[in-house]
Design a protein that fits this description.
The chain is built from 17 helices and two strands. The chain is mainly α. Strands 1-2 form a two-stranded antiparallel sheet. A hairpin with a 3-residue loop joins strand 1 and strand 2.
Length: 447
């Protein structure tokens, strides 16, 4: 451990990051890119066809886009920084060293995006007539800067799965323009627009009372969606063909579903999107509330699944072929196996395993090598040791630790000397049994 450890015992460290990330992606993609694109498009069509109703809808959109992006978007953006810094400091520290200037440029782009959004919002009533075209052009620039933010962040995130030649050259450009950069950027671009259509349509259906305006809005959405949805599928396939085979094999596993359920759930969701898209194109005046709700919740499910899969398929790595999910750098594994993990751990309270400190040493090893993904007890039973190790002997746990990366390839290998492995097995056996006993006693008291 090169950094202090922060633990969220029941909920799990990974779950904290996941919740914040999913909300942030919905805002940064669905609102800041997707909904902004829809807003500017409505204004443009409204000017071209002299339909003030579309312009009025675009104006209403701008209010909520401003509020949501500068509150929820900003808070979850900071939340991602804070949570990853305290939970996965090794990973975020490595990315900062690789992508410092990219992140700095992204910050400048984001500030510019906010300024453009403020100018766009506060000039609705001031720029009319010929100046309305200037207002719309500012909106287009706003869309561009929102997309540029995603274009920069995508280079950083995609490098975590496919660093490409970076592991050999340590070149910023090799890391940024990695094998999945372009397909990932294309996929994120079109998922932002399709997601926005799904999110915004439910509010159009419920809150725009003028039927003619509602028809005009859905007609615009239908044309945009007709282009974006096929491109989303194409770039998604392109992306899948460029990820490592080991990552591809973990897609279904990462969702926690069986292969059959995964297939049917995703096919059903895709059918909902296709039906909704066709309905907007051919019957914009008869959009069903049930269909609007279905596509809304399907979009939530897809974005949650996408984030879950994106994070999980990198296992056993957090930065592919460089750093394991628990923060151990792959090249250091041999050193730890020879010298021990604890003596090389900056923040471990115990540096050497003895007969008297087996539990304490095991706890430090748990913090350094297990805590990133597991809990002692918690809502995710597959990752809670009190459930997973139910009935296991200490010797069985010790044997399993030795081969876990072979029997479960998505698990990082244990690194450390034999005494440390036994200490970890002792700790896991003890806390698993203690937690299980506590649960039994708690149930008895409730009854």
């Amino acid at each position: 451990m090169d950094f202090p450890v922060v633990e969220f015992p029941w909920f799990g460290n990974g779950s904290v990051i996941a919740v914040i990330a999913i909300v942030h992606v919905i805002v940064s993609h669905g609102i800041a890119i997707g909904a902004t694109t829809l807003m500017v498009s409505l204004e443009y069509v409204g000017m071209k066809k002299n339909k003030e109703g579309l312009i009025d809808v675009a104006k209403k959109f701008s209010k909520w886009i401003l509020i949501i992006t500068t509150t929820v978007g900003a808070l979850t953006g900071v939340g991602i920084w804070f949570s990853t810094t305290v939970i996965q400091p090794d990973s975020i520290g490595s990315l900062l060293r690789i992508f410092f200037w990219a992140w700095f440029v992204e910050w400048i782009v984001f500030i510019t995006e906010v300024v453009l959004l403020l100018v766009y919002f506060y000039t609705w009533d001031k720029w009319k007539g010929a100046k309305r075209y200037i207002h719309n052009r500012i909106g287009m620039v706003l869309v561009l800067f929102g997309w540029l933010t995603a274009a920069i962040i995508t280079g950083i995130l995609s490098a975590k799965l496919t660093p490409g030649k970076w592991t050999e050259t340590l070149s910023f450009w090799n890391a940024f323009f990695n094998p999945t950069y372009l397909p990932s950027l294309g996929f994120r671009t079109f998922i932002a627009i399709v997601l926005a259509v799904a999110l915004v349509s439910i509010f159009v259906r419920f809150f725009i009372k003028d039927k003619n305006v509602q028809i005009d809005v859905f007609a615009v959405f239908g044309k945009i969606n007709a282009v974006s949805l096929p491109l989303l599928l194409l770039t998604g396939v392109w992306y899948l063909f460029n990820i490592p085979q080991e990552a591809y094999d973990l897609i279904v596993w990462s969702t926690g579903m069986t292969k059959e359920i995964f297939t049917w759930v995703n096919i059903a969701g895709l059918i909902v999107f296709i039906i909704f898209g066709l309905w907007m194109l051919f019957k914009p005046g008869r959009i069903s509330i049930i269909l609007s709700l279905a596509v809304f919740f399907s979009s939530m499910g897809f974005i949650a699944e996408f984030e879950m899969v994106r994070e999980s398929v990198r296992k056993p790595f957090i930065i592919y072929d460089y750093m394991y999910a628990n923060g151990v750098v792959e090249k250091d594994a041999e050193k730890y196996n020879e010298e021990g993990y604890l003596p090389n751990s900056t923040f471990a309270a115990v540096k050497e395993v003895t007969e008297d400190n087996l539990y304490e040493a095991g706890e430090e090893l748990y913090k350094g090598q297990c805590l990133a993904c597991h809990t002692v007890d918690g809502w995710r039973e597959k990752r809670a040791f009190a459930t997973r190790l139910n009935g296991w002997t200490e010797e069985a746990i010790d044997t399993y630790i030795d081969t876990l990366h072979e029997t479960r390839p998505f698990m990082p290998p244990f690194v450390g000397i034999e005494e440390e492995q036994k200490a970890l097995a002792h700790f896991l056996h003890k806390v698993a049994n203690e937690e299980r006993q506590n649960n039994v006693e708690a149930k008895g008291e409730d009854e």
